[in-house]
Amino acid sequence: MSDLIQIHSLLILLIGGIIVFSIFLRSELGKFGLPSVVGYLILGVAIRLLDGKAGFLSDEAYDIFRFLSQIGVIVLLFRVGLESNIKGLLRQFRRASIVWTGDVVVSGSLGFVASRFILGLDLVPSLILGVALVATSVGISISVWQEMKAMNSPTGELLLDVAEMDDISGIILLALLFSVIPTLNSGIQPAIASSVGKILIVILLKFFGFALFCLLFSIYIEKHITNFFSKLKRSPDPMLMITGVGFGIAAIAGLLGFSIAIGAFFAGLVFSRDPKAVKLDTSFSSLYEFFMPFFFIHIGLHVHPGSLSSALGLGSVLLIVAILGKLIGNGVLSLSIINWRSSLLFSMSMIPRAEIALVVIQRGREMGMSIVSDRVYSGMVVVSIATCILSPLLLRFFLKKWPQR
Questions:
Q1: Is it the case that residue 236 has pLDDT exceeding 80?
Q2: Residue 324: partners with Cβ closer than 8 Å, 6 or more residues away
Q3: pTM for the full predicted model
Q4: Which fold has domain 76-292+315-401?
Q5: How many CA atoms lie within 13 A of 255 on its CB side?
């Protein structure tokens, strides 16, 4: 019994140390203009390397990190949804959809083709990498635009609109892809097309049903719940209620066969229409800052040390594809709206891959090594780290050279 208490105490000490160190890490990386995501991923890889030598993490410890990671992805994508401006997006849909179409088609196609025919991967991992490379982690770029006081420029507004559409399409593709993977992976060739078609129809019906539920909840129920809890005599922080409802919606998505990440994103959208709820996001920050790092640390924690050398080659190919996909997909079509300098800035801003891209690769990994191998998993982590470092550095340089007014 004393040994068990000692193990639990050491694990709590490790988690406490990670929380404190992540605060320091975020502060120090910020001095160099680098996103904290990079530090969290590298920290996870470092812990895994140390564990490989010292063996201080038990299976129970990995389970605890996995649980914290699940909460982390819920608060992460809840916040992405919460910060979305659907009304503003609908107003700009016609303008932004031109660029968004090229962004999704080119990024996803290049990712799939490179994985399937250059890297020689199987169909399913190639599809997973194609979907992972569609999504953009625009929050990393936006921080640079805000720093340079360029966010309210026409290019900055276009960036926000396309990035929101990018996130939504990434979530939809995530839901569709992982619903058909079991069928694609079964190898039953004659009936596979009809089977996939039937599954897609069922999933689309469930998806739009879930989306309709979220819409009706947002229009007819959300305000009443928010007002009710805000009027309680011993009123708790209203953000706790919003977070609790968000967790419930995320769980419903999981029960419908989607991932909880998809549910968390839609839960954020439910409250994004309410300005009062968005203002409460400041009280959500502490919860977000506590759990969010564990998602990225957990990603790094599952990078197998033996796969790092082989992952560098695969990651380098995917990195080139990740950059070209956004530069071509966004750059060419955006030239019809903005000038070439603004187009280049806009395209560079879409390069980072973090939240949704890593959710996709993590979901694939959970389905088994035959779906996402150590090499593919580690290669995508390399892409995430590299794009999250490269894009802010380039943006800061070019926004100084070509300021956006």
A1: no
A2: 110
A3: 0.87
A4: Na+/H+ antiporter like fold (1.20.1530)
A5: 7
